[in-house]
């Protein structure tokens, strides 16, 4: 024993020195005796490099700790376990941690780690460091020692890393060297290394085995170790044809044969050696042991395998130094340092997945491939599918995707991909899984190890792609076929297009729109236009579309552009009809339709008509109207191109804009009217009388003149009066004409004809006609003053339009001293008023009368009123004599205040100019005095260059007339609230009390607080005042370019008005003209009024200095709509009958601040309709509110209070819609119908839920799934089985009572069905005893076998036979000796009791006769037997002269009647073969005997024993003995030879 210990120590010494150079690293591995004494390490102080040389003062100690890697609570950074310190005086933190050998810290790997802690004293003294060991263990991989055969030990290593644990529990080793070349110093150093943990000790440990299997071991030739290793041998081994190795060198070699192998997975080192060693699947000896023979490689691997399995016993017969020198130890180190052999098994986290939509693609859920990271599968990715390896960041399209063990991948496809994808069988690249098999060949023989492979099973998966379809719509112009954008189509599931599936996107610039994907199972959808493109009519065509999964169906649709038609009616402005005046004509007027703005082609391809271009031209015919047709909508106007004869050209641009009213209207119709103004002019006459000798002519008073339209004279009309000159009528043509029957000419006022008044000269001989329409007139003196001669008719032709009358006058010139020039000027601009005439009178203050002067044109006469001309001045026609004069204005120019009627706008001391538009000031009268002149030779004057006359010039200023606008804004304001009266509240209380007592319901819904709004002023509204048309300076001034001076361009902003608390706003000093108001801010809680209100400021006469205008705007208040959509949270179905209460969330105030409704007052109660919708009827104002829900039976109470605020935010919205979707959680009850025995779900049971009032509230047929019922009101119920699955052999179960609570709990109700139970007896019809051996069947009505058995003498129990349907009990094979019974038909009842069915069998009956062959007489004394086919005697008897009765002989099989002994004197008859029929009748069998003939007696030889038999037997025994001795000797020799090995 001492010698063995010495050998071990020498081996340890040599191994320690040599392995220090091996690839194991800094730790040296060697074999030693197994000593499990643990060594505790003490904490030691380590001085950090920064504090080297400074004496460390330590008060902190740290004990080593051991933790398992599976301990999730252990975090090294936070663990202070085992560290003793005073937290009040110092702080301890982890400074770093690393593996004992210098590697990184791995919290998930077992090993020994050095933790370095920094200690920071709080007294400002120096920082120092302490260290300790942290040992991590892996309990799943720890070796467990186990004695096995005394000195045999096996190493169990969970993984490579487990070898590091040796330093945690180091054996105490004493190194003793027996080698001469090893010094004592070397031994001491080795001992120090062992103690310090720098040498790792391998000890054998028991291996853990798992599965067992039978294998065949084949032993080959012996292999002797190379002499450079040692003097020993091993043998070639094969297990199931694979190279194997003996694992215990010190034991005898086992023979070939069949053995039981056990799987050893725990010894990872042995796995690596058998896999990477010689002959293994990962054989590395070709490179690592290159140059070595096969036998050498085998021996190296054999020693390595034996060492990993049995420890130092592997080195039996070898010198350790030789093993080191030969590289065997390094070879062991190399193999055990390799990775674990790859594993071929792979599995998928999902094998049948369904794709889900992800944006515009579909993808599978993530699938993980579990397996060795070196093992991969290649997935064939089909067309239009991309595979993504998330872990590797790789992808493949239409190719192969490689996925390694541990990787996560998924497939992604276009939405057009449908159907199912199957990956097929996916084999891992490794393909095989390796396992270590150890053959235990006997206590004295070696264990044999082999690394055997198994084919790894392939994996596969299936993907069900989405079945989706989509539609592509192409929209075109029906006329041009150009694509149209802006169309919106809907996809519907019904041909009536009421059930919209989805709305398609707006068609793009190419006229195309592609729908979202939808379920292709719909098969057929309908496409219809919802919104057409701008300027197009809605296409009402419904397009049926058949869809299939994965396809996009194209639909082409066209739209008809909306067209327009404009009708222009032509009328005379005064006749107000298509009726011309005078000789004018309305026909022949030519009109043009022009583009006001560029008119685009409706299909968007460009401009159809440019701005200002002529679109169409039409001429007025006899019908008086024209039509512009086939027009495209747009901004247009109509303007007269050519005016008709006698009418003024009309420059008016008549708005003819066509606007698309509705896409439902294909043609937009518009009608306009053009009013023509006939040319007009008056004429005036002065009637004088003179004899030619008078100094002055006499003015004639009282002469009357009548005017006739020549073309209306009867003789002209009928053609009887012809023009004397052949071309046109002259005055001479009417000298003798009789006018007494003719009608005077007419003019028109407001559509009515008015005769032209007779002209009567006044005292001055003056007469003036009304303005006559275009035409030729004859003026006839119809009344002549006494003693005067009638003047001849004269023709007056009106061929132009003028407000100046034609002058028919006689005048006489007279000289004046001074000519007076009056210049009319604008008081604000100081410019001459050019546009309109001012009329003056000149008052002679000395003569105290107005000046009259004679004019010669157009007729001679006297005038006393004088008008300014187009240059803004007037010069009196005759000179005035020197004197005192006053200029009086009797008519101011348009838009000016006549002198003497002026007013001023004053704001305190401030006086505003009429040009200053302002909202301030008050108008006050401020009349101006007239101009007085004293003309004498000293008066400043000018000399007229043409006549040389003196010219006195005077400027007279006029204020411009201005306008004042008062705007008033009104709207509905909350004034009061009409609530429930006290009597109504008391009635409501008692009604509720009654409902609570009786359980009856009273409709308590309705408005409780009615909001009353009244029209009142609105403060804070803002308006813009714009010029409707261009407003020019009224003085007619022009700029340098000759254009009129503009005050405001069209649409210019003139002023901004804001209403005050009274709802009014005023703006003063507006110029005369047409304006429009536009509201820009509606005022709090009101809707913006988009109406533009126009008004015109125009003075009725020139005495009005200020024109006042008032405009009132009424705004609608912004209404509040509070809606609730109530749904079941599970089914998403709307809930009807849910009552909600609307409350005030704050005090509701009137416009004056009075509290009308206190906070928390109930305003209204209302119940949802059948669609689950509710809209409160109360016209609430803006503010805070909240809604509470009343409890709905069958649902969990909803305590949520919906608080909201109706906020005024958008003044353009007439309605603020506040909507809440509320979902209620129904009660949930689960019902399972199960088999009483197996607990499995049953299909086909008809079940009912019955409430406490015996009403059926739910019915269903059970399936394999749990039946879920939602919305049962709280209460007690019964689950009743109306009909069990009788056909499946079940009977109805008892009612199950259960309770539903509205507390969120789920009622789990299970009803268990029992099987039908039948007890079937097979009995003897006579004895009633149960029979054995009958083969019976139970069949259903279709002949299907439901049960088959052979009777065993007991009643047969059957469960689950169909109930309520006729069944058949059939005997297939009767018991031996019985005949087959007739079928028994039976029907099981629906009961849980055992039901009994009985079938009775009758035995077979046979009568056997033994008769004389000749006489047929029954014989006595014959011994007969009945035998079956196997020769078994079934019956034996001796005949008694009567037929022998036998019962229960087998039926249907051949039997033999044999005569054993014949009656005396008879020969034994031949056997009679017979088969009994399957019948209850007695069957007869007869055997006939013949008599023995008489013959002489002869002797018969007798058989005996062979005399040679004893000799032969003795010889055989001798030979057997010799063979046994030889075999025994051979076995003993072989055993000795094995022991020598």
Automatic annotation (TrEMBL):
It comes from Hungatella hathewayi. The chain crosses the membrane at residues 1511-1529. Residues 1-27 form the signal peptide. Residues 140-170 are annotated as: Disordered. Keywords: Membrane, Secreted, Signal, Transmembrane, Transmembrane helix. This is LPXTG cell wall anchor domain-containing protein. It holds the Pfam family TED_2. Belongs to the serine-aspartate repeat-containing protein (SDr) family. Residues 141-157 have a biased composition (Basic and acidic residues). Residues 470-560, 565-669, 684-802, 820-898, 1016-1106, 1121-1216, 1230-1314, 1318-1402, 1405-1489 form the SpaA-like prealbumin fold domain. Residues 158-167 have a biased composition (Acidic residues). InterPro entries: Ig-like_fold (IPR013783), SpaA_PFL_dom_1 (IPR041033), TED_2 (IPR046751). Residues 215-342 form the Thioester domain. Coiled coil: none annotated.
């Amino acid at each position: 024993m001492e010698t063995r210990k010495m050998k071990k120590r020498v081996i340890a010494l040599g191994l320690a020195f040599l392995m220090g150079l091996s690839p194991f690293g800094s730790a040296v591995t060697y074999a030693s005796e197994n000593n499990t004494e643990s060594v505790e390490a003490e904490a030691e102080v380590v001085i950090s490099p920064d504090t080297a040389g400074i004496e460390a003062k330590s008060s902190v100690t740290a004990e080593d700790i051991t933790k398992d890697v599976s301990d999730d609570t252990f975090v090294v950074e936070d663990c202070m376990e085992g560290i003793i310190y005073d937290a009040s005086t110092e702080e301890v933190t982890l400074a770093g941690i690393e593996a004992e050998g210098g590697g990184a810290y791995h919290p998930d790997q077992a090993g020994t780690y050095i933790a370095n802690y920094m200690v920071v004293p709080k007294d400002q003294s120096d920082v120092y460091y302490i260290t300790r060991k942290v040992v991590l263990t892996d309990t799943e991989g720890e070796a467990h020692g186990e004695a096995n055969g005394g000195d045999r030990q096996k190493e169990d290593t969970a993984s490579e890393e487990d070898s590091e644990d040796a330093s945690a529990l180091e054996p105490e080793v004493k190194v003793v060297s027996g080698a001469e070349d090893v010094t004592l110093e070397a031994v001491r150093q080795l001992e120090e290394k062992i103690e310090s943990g720098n040498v790792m000790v391998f000890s054998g440990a028991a291996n853990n085995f798992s599965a067992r299997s039978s294998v065949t071991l084949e032993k080959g030739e012996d292999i002797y170790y190379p002499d450079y290793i040692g003097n020993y041998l091993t043998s070639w081994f094969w297990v199931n044809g694979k190279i194997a190795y003996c694992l215990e060198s010190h034991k005898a070699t086992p023979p070939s044969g069949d053995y039981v192998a056990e799987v050893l997975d725990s010894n990872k080192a042995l796995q690596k050696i058998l896999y990477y060693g010689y002959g293994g699947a990962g054989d590395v000896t070709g490179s690592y042991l290159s140059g070595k023979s096969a036998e050498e490689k085998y021996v190296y691997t054999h020693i390595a395998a034996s060492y990993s399995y049995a420890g130092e016993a592997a080195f039996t017969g070898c010198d350790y130094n030789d093993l080191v020198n030969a590289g065997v130890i390094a070879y062991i180190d190399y193999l055990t340092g390799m990775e674990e052999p790859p594993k071929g098994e792979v599995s998928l986290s999902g094998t049948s997945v369904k794709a889900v939509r992800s944006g515009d693609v579909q993808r599978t859920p993530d699938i993980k491939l579990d397996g060795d990271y070196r093992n991969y599968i290649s997935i064939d990715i089909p067309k239009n599918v991309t595979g993504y390896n998330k872990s590797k960041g790789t992808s493949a399209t239409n190719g192969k995707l490689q996925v390694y063990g541990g990787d996560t991948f998924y497939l992604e496809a276009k939405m057009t991909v449908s159907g199912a994808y199957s990956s097929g069988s996916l084999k891992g690249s490794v393909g095989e899984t390796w396992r270590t098999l150890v053959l235990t060949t006997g206590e004295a023989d070696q264990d044999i190890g082999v690394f055997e492979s198994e084919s790894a099973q392939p994996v596969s998966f299936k993907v069900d792609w989405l079945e989706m379809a989509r539609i592509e719509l192409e929209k075109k112009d029906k006329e041009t076929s150009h694509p149209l954008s802006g169309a919106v189509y809907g996809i519907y599931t019904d041909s009536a297009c009421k059930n919209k599936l989805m709305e398609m996107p707006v068609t793009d610039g190419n006229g195309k729109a592609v729908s979202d994907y939808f379920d292709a199972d719909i098969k057929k959808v309908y496409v219809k236009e919802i919104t057409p493109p701008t300027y197009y009519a809605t296409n009402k065509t419904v397009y049926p579309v058949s869809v299939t999964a994965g396809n996009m169906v194209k639909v082409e649709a066209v739209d008809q552009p909306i067209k327009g038609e404009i009708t222009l009616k032509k009328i005379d402005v005064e006749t107000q009809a298509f009726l011309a005046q005078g000789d004018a004509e309305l026909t022949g007027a030519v009109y043009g339709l022009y583009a006001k703005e560029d008119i685009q082609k409706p299909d968007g391809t460009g401009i159809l008509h440019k701005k200002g271009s002529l679109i169409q031209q039409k001429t007025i015919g006899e019908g008086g109207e024209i039509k512009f047709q086939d027009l495209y909508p747009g901004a247009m106007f109509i303007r007269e191109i050519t005016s008709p004869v006698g009418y003024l050209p009309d420059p008016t641009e008549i708005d003819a804009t066509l606007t698309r009213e509705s896409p439902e209207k294909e043609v937009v119709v518009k009608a306009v009217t053009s009013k023509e103004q006939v040319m007009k002019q008056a004429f005036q006459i002065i009637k004088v009388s003179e004899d030619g000798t008078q100094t002055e002519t006499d003015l004639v008073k009282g002469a009357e003149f009548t005017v006739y339209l020549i073309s209306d004279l009867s003789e002209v009309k009928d053609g009887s009066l012809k023009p004397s000159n052949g071309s046109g009528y002259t005055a001479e043509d009417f000298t003798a004409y009789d006018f007494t029957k003719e009608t005077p000419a007419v003019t028109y006022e407001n559509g009515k004809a008015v005769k032209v008044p007779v002209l009567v000269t006044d005292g001055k001989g003056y007469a003036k006609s009304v303005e006559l329409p275009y035409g030729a007139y004859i003026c006839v003196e119809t009344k002549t003053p006494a003693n005067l001669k009638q003047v001849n008719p004269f023709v007056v032709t009106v061929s132009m339009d003028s407000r100046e009358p034609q002058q028919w006058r006689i005048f006489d010139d007279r000289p004046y001293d001074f000519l007076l020039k009056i210049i009319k000027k604008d008081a604000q601009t100081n410019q001459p008023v050019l546009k309109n005439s001012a009329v003056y009178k000149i008052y002679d203050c000395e003569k105290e009368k107005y000046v009259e002067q004679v004019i010669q044109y157009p007729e001679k006469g006297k005038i006393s009123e004088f008008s300014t001309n187009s240059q803004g001045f007037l010069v009196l026609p005759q000179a005035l004599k020197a004197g005192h004069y006053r200029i009086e204005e009797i008519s101011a120019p348009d838009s000016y205040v006549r002198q003497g009627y002026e007013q001023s706008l004053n704001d305190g001391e401030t006086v505003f100019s009429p040009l200053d538009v302002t909202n301030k000031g008050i108008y006050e009268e401020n009349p101006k005095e007239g101009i007085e002149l004293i003309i004498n030779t000293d008066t400043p004057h000018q000399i007229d260059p043409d006549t040389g006359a003196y010219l006195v010039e005077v400027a007279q200023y006029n204020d411009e007339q201005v306008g004042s606008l008062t705007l008033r804004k009104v709207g509905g304001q909350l004034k009061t609230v009409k609530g429930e009266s006290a009597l109504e509240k008391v009635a409501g209380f008692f009604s509720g009390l009654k409902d609570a007592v009786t359980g009856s319901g009273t409709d308590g819904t309705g408005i409780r607080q009615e909001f009353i709004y009244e029209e009142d002023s609105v403060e804070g509204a803002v308006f813009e005042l714009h010029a409707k048309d261009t407003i020019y300076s009224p003085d007619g001034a022009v700029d340098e370019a000759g254009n009129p001076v503009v005050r405001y361009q069209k649409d210019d902003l003139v002023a901004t008005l804001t209403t005050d608390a009274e709802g009014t706003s005023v703006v003063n000093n507006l110029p005369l003209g047409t304006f429009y108001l536009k509201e820009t801010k509606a005022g709090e809680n009101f809707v913006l009024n988009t109406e533009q209100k126009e008004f015109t400021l125009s003075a009725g006469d020139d005495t009005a200095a200020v024109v006042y205008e008032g405009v009132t705007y009424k705004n609608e208040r912004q209404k509040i709509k509070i809606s609730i959509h109530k749904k079941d949270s599970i089914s998403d179905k709307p809930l009807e009958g849910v009552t909600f209460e609307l409350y005030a969330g704050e005090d509701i105030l009137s416009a004056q601040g009075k509290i009308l409704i206190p906070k928390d007052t109930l305003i209204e109660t209302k119940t949802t309709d059948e669609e689950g919708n509710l809209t409160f009827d109360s016209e609430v104002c803006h503010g805070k509110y909240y809604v509470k829900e009343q409890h709905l039976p069958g649902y969990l109470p909803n305590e949520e209070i919906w608080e909201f605020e109706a906020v005024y935010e958008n003044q353009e919205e007439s309605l603020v819609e506040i909507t809440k979707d509320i979902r209620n959680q129904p009660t949930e009850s689960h019902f399972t119908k199960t088999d009483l025995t197996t607990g499995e779900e049953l299909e086909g049971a008809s079940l009912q839920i019955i409430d406490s009032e015996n009403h059926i509230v739910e019915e269903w047929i059970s399936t394999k799934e749990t039946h879920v019922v939602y919305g049962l009101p709280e209460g007690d119920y019964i689950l009743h089985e109306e009909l069990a699955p009788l056909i499946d052999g079940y009977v109805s179960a008892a009612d199950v009572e259960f309770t539903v609570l509205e507390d969120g709990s789920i009622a789990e109700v299970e009803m268990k069905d029992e099987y039908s139970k039948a007890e079937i007896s097979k009995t003897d019809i006579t004895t009633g005893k149960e029979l054995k051996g009958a083969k019976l069947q139970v069949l259903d009505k279709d002949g299907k076998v439901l049960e088959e058995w052979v009777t065993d003498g007991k009643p047969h129990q059957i469960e689950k036979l169909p109930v309520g349907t006729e069944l058949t009990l059939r005997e297939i094979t009767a018991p031996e000796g019985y005949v087959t019974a007739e079928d028994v038909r039976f029907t099981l009842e629906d009961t849980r009791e055992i039901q009994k069915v009985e079938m009775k069998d009758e035995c077979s009956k046979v009568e056997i006769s033994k008769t004389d062959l000749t006489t047929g007489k029954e014989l006595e004394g014959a011994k007969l037997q009945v035998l079956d086919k196997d020769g078994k005697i079934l019956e034996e008897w001796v005949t008694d002269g009567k037929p022998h009765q036998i019962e229960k002989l087998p039926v249907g099989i051949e039997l033999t009647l044999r005569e054993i002994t014949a009656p005396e004197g008879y020969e034994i008859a031949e056997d009679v073969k017979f088969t009994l029929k399957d019948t209850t009748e007695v069957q007869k069998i007869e055997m006939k005997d013949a008599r023995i003939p008489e013959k002489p007696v002869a002797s018969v030889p007798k058989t005996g024993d062979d005399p040679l038999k004893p000799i032969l037997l003795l010889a055989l025994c001798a030979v057997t003995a010799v063979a046994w001795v030889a075999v025994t000797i051979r076995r003993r020799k072989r055993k000795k030879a094995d022991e020598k090995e």
